[in-house]
Structure to design on (208 residues):
C-alpha cells in the first residue's frame, strides 16, 4: 500500500507579473505562502501521525518554498531534485507572455509532437521534459515508503502521473493533465499493486 501526493506550487511572482515561468526562478507571493500553509495542513490531515514520509521537490524557489512549509508541518526534510522542474522555455523565461506568443510554434495535430521545436531558442521539448521527470520518478518509486509527496509544477505534474501509471514515454504525445496552482493530486497503490488516480487537482483546502 502506498499513497503519493503530487502538489503543484501555489501562486508565484511570475503569475502576477504575467511573465513566462519555466526555469525562471520566481518566488511565492504572500497569497502563495498562505496557500502553502493550507496545503501543509491538508497533507497533515491525510497522513497518519507517526507515519514515515518522503518529501521530494523541484529545486526552483517557488516549489522548494512550498516543500519547506510542508516539511515543517510533517517533520521531514525536502529532497530537492532539478529533474522535477517545469519544462524549460529557454530564452522566453522571465519575459512577458506576449514575447513568447509572438514566437511560439504550436505542435501539429498529427505527426511529431514529443520532440517538436516550439520556435523558442533553448527551450526543452515535451519529450525532454518527460524523460527527466520519468528518471526522477523511477528513483522515487523504487522506495517502499508508504507516504510520499512530490512538489512540482503544472506540466511536470502530468509526467509524474503518467510515470505512476506506467504509461510508456512514446505514448505521451497528447497527454496533459490539468490542475490549478496550489492543488493536491492523490495517487494510491493498492494491495495488488494497482495504481489509482484518486483525486486530480484538488483545491478544497484553499480559501475561496
Amino acid at each position: 500500500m502506498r499513497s503519493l501526493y503530487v502538489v503543484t506550487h501555489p501562486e508565484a511572482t511570475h503569475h502576477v507579473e504575467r511573465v513566462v515561468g519555466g526555469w525562471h526562478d520566481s518566488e511565492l507571493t504572500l497569497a502563495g505562502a498562505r496557500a502553502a500553509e493550507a496545503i501543509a495542513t491538508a497533507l497533515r490531515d491525510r497522513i497518519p501521525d507517526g507515519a514515515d514520509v518522503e518529501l521530494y521537490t523541484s529545486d526552483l524557489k517557488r516549489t522548494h518554498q512550498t516543500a519547506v512549509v510542508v516539511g515543517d508541518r510533517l517533520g521531514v526534510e525536502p529532497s530537492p531534485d532539478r529533474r522535477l522542474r517545469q519544462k524549460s522555455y529557454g530564452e522566453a523565461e522571465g519575459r512577458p507572455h506576449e514575447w513568447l506568443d509572438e514566437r511560439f510554434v504550436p505542435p501539429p495535430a498529427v505527426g511529431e509532437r514529443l520532440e517538436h521545436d516550439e520556435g523558442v531558442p533553448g527551450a526543452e521539448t515535451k519529450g525532454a521534459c518527460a524523460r527527466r521527470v520519468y528518471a526522477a520518478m523511477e528513483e522515487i518509486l523504487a522506495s517502499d515508503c508508504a507516504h510520499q509527496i512530490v512538489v512540482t509544477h503544472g506540466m511536470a505534474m502530468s509526467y509524474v502521473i503518467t510515470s505512476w501509471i506506467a504509461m510508456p514515454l512514446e505514448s505521451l504525445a497528447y497527454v496533459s493533465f490539468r490542475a490549478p496552482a496550489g492543488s493536491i493530486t492523490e495517487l494510491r497503490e493498492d494491495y495488488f499493486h494497482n495504481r489509482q488516480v484518486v483525486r486530480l487537482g484538488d483545491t478544497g483546502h484553499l480559501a475561496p
Summary: Residues 4 and 164 are 9 Å apart (CA to CA). The chain has a mean pLDDT of 96.
